[in-house]
């Protein structure tokens, strides 16, 4: 059975004190849940190295929330893929809707970042999904096609091997209104079928997670769907107890 991938996206949250409490709790409780799960923590950049030192021996992976498109040079304030790699990052979130919205990232820039991550042998977590308006106007499939097409255009049919797609409808992020698991299942199927038209990949290799207002209470209804390969968890991942509960739920489903 395919492992589920559970990612904590802390966004611009937490601090040294809270991280230390979180990691102590994690160290004490995580080991029995890792057999069926891959767990990734994506903290703010400034805490990456601190966290790496504590999670490396726990078999939990380090994720970055973004990367610059340049590898080095006069780009004040940015973080390069070489630096992320240097300190133990294995996964990089790219194209999160908050980057698209607040930093004007478009599909082309996101595709470039996606390629940079892959060419550096790290694993991109590509976030895609529609806004509330787009959903209301029945544009979800069109939006997703556009978000995927540019990746295919740049990187060909193997683009989604060794990559993760996170389907995150924008209206479900941070709103407390998670999508309906059946709806998510249908979109995941659409994504798989669409990718399948363009590539000869084994569909089993395509990993698609869901993200948007996941918590310990609703995680089960998503994780029990076979087309949902894991969860990208925002605010609920800041509380170690709640995050562990989500991982535990995943474990229980998979060891049945
Ligand atoms: P949320 O965030 O769980 O707080 O809705 C999810 C995300 O943005 O990845």
Automatic annotation (TrEMBL):
CDD domains: TIM (cd00311). The active site is at residues 96, 168. Keywords: Cytoplasm, Gluconeogenesis, Glycolysis, Isomerase. InterPro entries: Aldolase_TIM, TIM_sf, TrioseP_Isoase_bac/euk, Triosephosphate_isomerase, Triosephosphate_isomerase_AS. This is Triosephosphate isomerase. Involved in the gluconeogenesis. Catalyzes stereospecifically the conversion of dihydroxyacetone phosphate (DHAP) to D-glyceraldehyde-3-phosphate (G3P). Gene3D superfamilies: Aldolase class I (3.20.20.70). Substrate binds at residues 9-11, 174, 213. It catalyses: D-glyceraldehyde 3-phosphate = dihydroxyacetone phosphate. Homodimer. It is found in: Cytoplasm. Signal peptide: none annotated. Pathway: Carbohydrate metabolism; erythritol degradation; Carbohydrate degradation; glycolysis; D-glyceraldehyde 3-phosphate from glycerone phosphate: step 1/1; Carbohydrate biosynthesis; gluconeogenesis. GO terms for biological process: gluconeogenesis; glyceraldehyde-3-phosphate biosynthetic process; glycerol catabolic process; glycolytic process. It comes from the Bacteria. Its main location: cytoplasm. Its EC number is 5.3.1.1.
């Amino acid at each position: 059975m395919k492992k589920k991938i559970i990612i904590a996206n802390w966004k611009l949250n937490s601090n040294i004190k809270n991280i230390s409490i979180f990691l102590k709790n994690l160290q004490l409780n995580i080991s029995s849940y890792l057999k069926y799960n891959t767990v990734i923590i994506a903290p703010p950049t400034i805490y990456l190295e601190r966290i790496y030192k504590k999670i490396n021996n726990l078999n939990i992976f380090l994720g970055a929330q973004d990367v610059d498109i340049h590898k080095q040079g006069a780009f004040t304030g940015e973080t390069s893929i070489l630096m992320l790699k240097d300190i133990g990052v294995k996964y990089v979130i790219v194209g999160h809707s908050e980057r698209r919205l607040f930093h004007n990232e478009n599909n082309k820039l996101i595709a470039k970042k996606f390629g940079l991550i892959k060419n550096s042998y790290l694993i991109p977590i590509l976030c895609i999904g529609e806004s509330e308006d787009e959903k209301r106007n029945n544009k979800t499939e069109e939006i997703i096609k556009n978000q995927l097409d540019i990746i295919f255009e740049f990187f060909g049919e193997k683009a989604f091997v060794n990559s993760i797609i996170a389907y995150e409808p924008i209206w479900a992020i941070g709103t407390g209104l998670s999508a309906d698991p059946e709806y998510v299942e249908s979109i995941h199927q659409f994504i798989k079928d669409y990718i399948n038209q363009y590539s000869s990949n084994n569909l089993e290799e395509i990993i698609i997670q869901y993200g948007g207002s996941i918590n310990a209470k609703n995680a089960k209804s998503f994780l029990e769907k076979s087309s949902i390969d894991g969860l990208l968890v925002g605010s609920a991942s800041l509380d170690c107890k709640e995050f562990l509960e989500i991982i535990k739920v995943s474990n229980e489903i998979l060891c049945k």
